[in-house]
Amino acid sequence: xxxxxxxxxxxxxxxxxxxxxxxxxxxxxxxxxxxxxxxxxxxxxxxxxxxxxxxxxxxxxxxxxxxxxxxxxxxx
Length: 76
Fold this sequence. Notes:
Strand content: under 5%
Shape: elongated
Order of helices and strands: HHHH
Number of helices: 4
Number of strands: 0
Low-confidence stretches: none
Radius of gyration: 17 Å
Distance between the termini: 27 Å
């Protein structure tokens, strides 16, 4: 197996790992809560799950779903 082929396989697995990791980080951030940002967001009428770092993690998880979508469509 060539070195390029091995690194390509590793990159594929890392790409697939990104979405679940970001989703878990978003969930953990949302469940742990950040009292400072929650206070600011509650005054603005924005639920804490949709603000701050939790929102950033959810967006990153969404953007990193592309490798999963490709994998699913190629197998169909």
